[in-house]
Every structure is written in structure tokens, then in C-alpha cells.
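Hi team,

Filling in the usual template for the complex we talked about on Friday. All components are listed, including any nucleic acid strands or ligand strings, so the model treats them as one assembly.

SUBMITTER: L.P.
PURPOSE: interface mapping
COMPONENTS: two
RESIDUES: 983
SEQUENCES:
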Amino acid sequence: MKTIKYLFPILCLVLSLTSCSTDDDDNNIEINPVADLMMVKSITANNHTIEIYGTDNQFNLGYNEFSIRIKNNATDTYFENPTISWVPVMHMTSMSHSCPRSALTISEFSTVANGFIIFQMPGNDTEYWELTITYEIDGTSYEAMEKISVVAPADSMKRVNSFMGADDSRYVLAMVKPENPDVMVNDFTAALYKMENMMTFTPVADYMVGVDPRMPGMGNHSSPNNEDLTYNSDSQMYDGKLSLTMTGYWKVNLILYNADGDVLKGEEVTETNMESSLYFDFEF
Amino acid sequence: MKYLKDIGGLLYLNFGHSNNLKLLSIAVAFLISTAGYSQEETSKECTDTCSEQCSGVCTDSLKIHQLNEVLIISPKKKLAYQRESKPLSSVDEYLEKSQQVTMIKRGAYAWEPTINNMASERLSVTIDGMRIFAACTDKMDPVTSYVDVSNLSKVTVASGQKGSEHGACIGGAIDLKLDKTGFREDYLKVSIEDGFESNNQQMIIGADVNFSEEKFFIDADVIYRKAENYTAGGGEEVLYSQFEKYNLSFNGGLLLDEERKLTTTFIFDEARDVGYPSLPMDVSLARAFIYSVGYEQLHLGAFTNWESKLYGNSITHIMDDSQRPDVPIRMDMPGWSDTYGIYSQARLKQEKHNLLFKVDGFYNRSLAEMTMYPNDSNQSAMFMLTWPDVRTLNTGVYVEDNIAFEKAELKLATRITYQNNLVADEFGLNSLKIFYPDMDAAQNRFLSSVSAQYSKKVNAFDMSIGISYASRAPSVSEGFGFYLFNSSDNHDYIGNPELKNEQAIEFNGAVTFKNEKLKIGLSGNVFRMPNYIIGEVETGLSTMTIGADGVKIYKNLDNATITNVMFNSEYKLTKELKVTSGVSYHRGVDSDARNLPFISPIAYGSTLAYQKNSFYGAVEMQGASKQINFNPTFGENQSKAYTIFSLSLGKTFYISKNQLYTKAGVQNIFDKYYSTYADWNNIPRMGRNFHITLSYKIG
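RESULT (copied from the run log):
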């Protein structure tokens, strides 16, 4: 009996250890790198399929994050570590231009490259966006091009501004976060790009964006403890805080200052001036 | 439900031999009361010792150590409440007769009681010892609005720490005692009451059935009131002052044996379409379920009068503005408050000592929402939590010792309370974190109080002095409220979870001279309150409410001081004719010598009453001086002096064994237009009002 008394805990220990190692084995199951994303576009070219994924199933006006992978249709496998670049171009009736975008970098999954594009205008019947994807696999360059449809939000809320600053430069300011605003102090992030020419947009450093959220439906009241957007050199974006005290329609009035503190765009909200010409708005 | 089962078991054990009908009726009474514990009122001190002078306010002069005012409403035996000038007046009107109580009025219904010029958050207001918390963020539903005179036998008003028996408080306590027949042989009484008031066409209908046997009793009563808008003196109609309410209540008791009894209570109260003329919103529904089950045992070892009670109550309060034609924005503001509690107490008598031990606890859940509908119907509704589902767990121990000396008495009392607050709703917690980023969801507080009261009889004089210390936790609004609009000072209020406990050090004293014809009393108290909690303007914050002047955040002041002095007298001119008078002075200032809000100016009143056989008549005068110490920072302006007069006459007719009681009177005889310091936004009080009450008692 005494032996059993000692043996029993040892047996338990051995059993539990064994079960632990079994668990570890289970983790080796392959994870789908785009499991949480939706297919936005699939382009077939060069006997490859270029799959573009996003959090939505379409190209939206404003800031969009995308994940791209390229399938070899012959083997039905995805290329590892491809070098991919992209150029979106808006074909307007009188001219063409591009928009702010990041480079595409390989994510934690070797088959998937991530990046973002900020569409500053939607397409329409006569004007359209075209996306050119250039990629290199095993030293060979390929190119694919296809028209895409960029859609303005159904609620016509403004999450991107394209404007001429007081310094006669053209800027694009897009809201990155919060994606789903809530009643709380939200982390607030925006991307600011300067239009160097029709095809080149560069991130702007060391400017500042004043933040003043208001509820026009309720006396245009504001909220406390907001933080202005300041430059974050790591992300090359602007971070701040956005306090939302209740649900409903919010207009986030903005003022863009350059590094010298000069106002480039936007106005203070006062008793007589209900809104700034530079703003984001949303409803939740 | 477990308790119900237990009771069911007890019923069968003890009354297995009783007839089925009896059993059935008891079972029904218990079923109605769902699951709670209640207690039978054992104290009859007021009815016994001073029923003769119970014409409203009765101060028990034989027991001066108590110094608690007891307002008699309806003791079953004596019918004394019918000596009231207006027997079917609201609980609020009864309370207002106490010299220590003033009522803050936001309309014709649900006035908020204050004691020593301190309101709800500084008082403990209980119904038969049960803690109840209002569900309205704007104080439109004080606890006293969820009972009616038909339920009550008396109201105990205790000043300062004399009220700490039922819970931690600073300013005092109000305990509303339910009316219970008790155990009597073959007792059946039915009474029907009917009242009418001319000014607001208020109709009051009530019925009361009391049935008692040697071993059990059941009391049931119902009262219904409906009133239209009232008119102020001079004939101006006060819009949105209507109300409608009904109240049902059941009390039951079961005598298990000579030693033990079970009691139960159930109250249902519902008010609809209640107007609040001084506020921007009205109330479409205010509803309370209040229930309890109690157990009492005469002896427990060396202890006596062991009482325990398990109780619960659930309040729903719906504010709405659908009746108002002009509002900047439409909104709904529902609120809920649920409380569950338990207490157990016993006495221990040893020579000169008479000790009371009590342990109690409650758990409250307070939740309130606000939804605003933008005038632009394309925009979605705006929603916020104004009370973020605050859970309060409060447990305490109370010990009191009454030490009797020859012609003197010393009462020592102490209470220790532990309170935990938890903001249970994440949405609400995130809302508050906008103001307090480091705030935790939960916080703990320890509250304590100690008091000593010494009283002595010297010839015809009764003297009493007392000293006490107490602390209180912030209320739900003070600690966790989110953009609560105060229409008196026109500011939005934000709660402050970082508030310290408010403290009070109180000194009080009283002298009463009494002989056969004359009684004169002078009493006073001073409250020195470190960390006094009040809303202070926070500049730079944007107001949420359209048209508000600013935002206030609850803060602890260094301290504040409130002083009250009261004088009263009673003189018997003849055996039938008696004149009573009272004058009171009040003052409240903070550490910066600013006047505190809602502090009464000098108030006075006098009554000349005549009583002979079954006839009763009285002329009353009541007034206040011009308010000198007021504070515009807190939304106050100067209230004017006023004096009003009232008259009432009553007579009882005996029809065989039954009684018909009639009473008629007129209030504000000269139709004076007036408004007092306690009238929210200066709404005028009622003008001339004729009232009549008929009460018919069978058995």
C-alpha cells in the first residue's frame, strides 16, 4: 500500500508531462496567414494569381491596409519572399496622379507582403484607379495591371483630406486609427503626406495636428483630455488621443501646423465658427 | 426561493393542525412577498408615551436621550393621525412638519428630505431598517417617494449620529416605520379613505384591511392619488406639476411560539406621468418593489430581542421629455437601482447597561443611461452611461450602549463599515477613464463613527449634550456620475472616484423646561465637516448639456461648517386650547467663507389648536425670513420672506360600532405667491387649497 501511495503522484506527474508534450505537437498545424482577412482583389497574370487581402472586401476611400501574396498557378503554391511594389494611379479626365502608399514588406509569413494605400478620392463613371503591381521572383521581373474600383463610404463620412496648405503645397491627411471608435480615450493615429509631384507622395515629419472633437448634434460640445497629433518617427505617422464621451456623430476638427508652428490648414472652433475646414468625421 | 421553501417548511411544522383556509391565506401573503425577511415593530414608545400630544410632531420628552423626532402617521390603536390637519397628505407633507426636516421641491411630487440642511447623500433613509437607493440621477425619486401614508405608522427623524443605527450617515437619518397590526384575537378592521384637494384637483382613494388572529396577522392597504397641475398663489398655473401614483402594501406576521415570530412585507409603488415643473424633464414611470422576510426571537442566550431581516428592493425610474414642447434635444434617461440586504441585531441588558449589537450589509447596483436624439434625424442617437453600473457592497457593525444613571443617561454608539465600489460596466469605466486615466474599476473604503450623548434631568429641566465623529463615502453620483445636469446651478456634473471620505465632527446640545402648562426647548448643533464634498467649476471643460454654463467636478473642500439652532415652545392655554411655536436658525459656510447652498433662512411656525371630545380645530402659521446667506455660485438667488396661514377642522361621528371621520381645511388661506430657499429654480408653491378627507372605519 505504501508503495502505491508514493507511486501514484509520480504516475500523475508522468501522465501530465506526457499530455503537455502532445499539446506542443498540435501547434505545428499550418496557420492560414490570411485567415482573418477578406479577399479584395485577385489578379491573374503571368500564370500567377496575385491575391490582395484587406479588412474589407473592397478598396475604400482613405487609409487601407493590404496583404498581398502571389500564387504559382502551375504548382498551386505561394512564392516565398517575393519582392513586390505597387503603383496606384488615378486616371482623371484631364490628368493622372497617384496617391500616398507604403512599401510592401514581407510579414511574419514569408509568402505574404503587407502595406497600405491612402486613396484620396473615389473612382466614378469617367475617372478610375488602376493598380500596377511589379514583382520579382528568382531574378525575373513581372508586372500586372488592373483597374480597381475605389469606393466612397456609404455614410459619406470623411476619413481622408486632400488639400492645399497655406504654403501652397498639397497634402493628404488620412485617419488610420481608431478603426472602430468607442466611448473612451481612443488611440488616435493619422498619416500625413505631401504631394511632391503627380506621382510622388512623401510622409511629412515634425508637423503637428491640433485635435478638437465635437458633437454638432448636441450643441457642438467637445470632450476633455484629447492629445494633439504629433510625429512618431518609427511609424512615420502622427499619434495622439481622441476622447469620445458618448456614442453618436462626432466631427474631429483639425488644424495642421508646420514645424514652425504656422497654420497650414484648419480653423479654431468657436461660438461663431462651428467647424474647421480640415476634419474627420464618423458615427458609431 | 430557498427562503420561501424554508418558510413553507416552518409553516407546516407549526400550523399543521390549523385549518386550510388560514394556511392558504398565509401562504398567499408569503408568496406575494417573494423572498425577503422583515420584522415586527416592537417599539411602541411614541404611541404609548406621547400620543396625547401627537398632533403632528411628537418629541418624546420623557426620553430625552433619544432626541429623535417621531412623526406619528397612523398608529392603529389611536387614530391619532386623524388629528392631523390633513390626514391623507403625502409622506412629504408629514415630514415637512418636523422642525429638523425641510423638503427640497422640484414639483408637487417626490420632495427630497433634508435634515440639518443636508440632503440624501449625507443621510440614511430606510424603510423599516431596509436600505433603499433612488434610481434617478437627478434626485427626482427620493426613497420617501416609494411609500405612502397608508403604509406607515410613524417616521423617526434622527439628527446627526443618532441616526447611524441603520447605516453610515453624516447629517442624520429617517426611518419610515411600516404600520403593522400585530397579533390580536379575532381582529378585523376595514377602513376606506377618501380625500380631495381643490387646488390641483387631487383625488385620493385608499382602503385598508387588517386581519389578525392570535397567531398571525395580515395587513393590506392600497392608496391611489391623482393630481392635475397646481396653481400658485395669485392663480398662475404651474405647468407640468401633475402626478398619478398608486401604492399597494402587504404585511404579514406569524407567531411561531411565545418566543419566535416570522414577518414579511411587500410594497409595490408606481407613479406615472409625474411632472417636474422646475426641471427640464418629467417622469413617465417610477416603480418600486420592496420586500422582506424577518425573523424575531425574544431570547438568544444572554441576548434579548433578536431580530433578523433579509430584504430586497428594485427600482425603475424613467425620465422623459416627450410632454415638453420646446427642448433643445429629445432625450431618454432611465435609471435602475436594486438593493439586497440583511441585518441581524440583538440587545443585551446588564445592570445599568442596555446594549444593542447589530451587523448589517447590503449590495446595491445603480445603473443609469442617457440617450439623446439629434434634431437631424439622419444622425444616430447619442448614448452614454450616466451611472456606470456601480456595485456597492457595504457591510457594517453597529454597537450602542445606553447606560442609565439616576436621573441621567449616557448613550455611546459606534459603527464601523467597510464599503467596496465596483464599476462593473466596461463602457462606463472607459467613459470615466477619459477624466481619470489611472482609475481602477474597484475601490475600498472604511467608514467609522463614534458618538456619545449625555442627558440629565435637573428639576424641571432636561439637558442633553453630545459629541460625535462620522465619515461617509461619496454617493454614486459624487463618485461615478457622468455628465449629470443640475438645472439649479445650470452645470454638468462629473463624478470623482478619487474623492476622499467626507467627515463630520458634531457637537449638539439641548435644554428643555417643562411644567404642567408650559414646555420650552432650545437645541442646537454644529457640524464641522473636513473633506466636505461639493461640485466645483472646472474651467476649460466643454458642457455637454445644451445651454449649460459649465462643468463641475465633485471635490473635497478643506472643510465646511453647518450650524442649526432651534427653539420651540408649547403652552396650554386651557385644557382644550394649546399653542405651539417654533423658530429655527441655520447657517452653512465652507472653508473659504462661501455660503453653502440650500441652507434655510430663519424659519418660524405656530399652531393654535383646539380639541374637545371628537372635535378638532387648528389655525397654523408658517413662514421664513428673507434669505440673507445665499450663493449664486451654486445657482441660488435670494428667496423672499413669506408668511402663510392655514386652517383645519375635523370631527368624528360614531355610527353604531363604526367611525366616520371628517376633516376639512384650507391651506395658504390668503393665496400668497411664495417660493422658499428649498424650491428648485424658485418654482412657486401652491396657492390657496381647500381639502377634505373622509375616513370610514368598520370594526
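MY TAKE: Chain B touches chain A at residues 328-329, 370, 372, 374-376, 379-384, 427, 430-431, 433-435, 437, 482-483, 540-547 (CB under 8 Å). The two ends of chain B are 37 Å apart (CA to CA).

Thanks, L.
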